[in-house]
Design brief:
mainly alpha, about 80% helix
């Protein structure tokens, strides 16, 4: 059980880091005149949202908390 908790924690940290990177890319994409990069960033943002939702469903909460 501890191994699963550690794996989920690592995956959560990776998703969190990717979310920060995408947030920076979103700012940069907003500056550029084309919309192609805005569409790409939007797709990546949605995909990270789906992964985050899935991780929330498998979240492990210690007993008593």
């Amino acid at each position: 059980m501890e191994l699963i908790e550690q794996i989920l924690a690592v995956i959560g940290a990776v998703v969190l880091g990717a979310t920060f990177i995408v947030k920076g890319l979103e700012i940069i994409a907003g500056i550029t005149p084309t919309t192609k990069d805005d569409e790409f960033v939007g797709k990546v943002k949605r995909a990270l949202g789906y992964v985050s939702d899935i991780l929330d469903r498998f979240a492990v909460h210690p007993a008593g908390k």
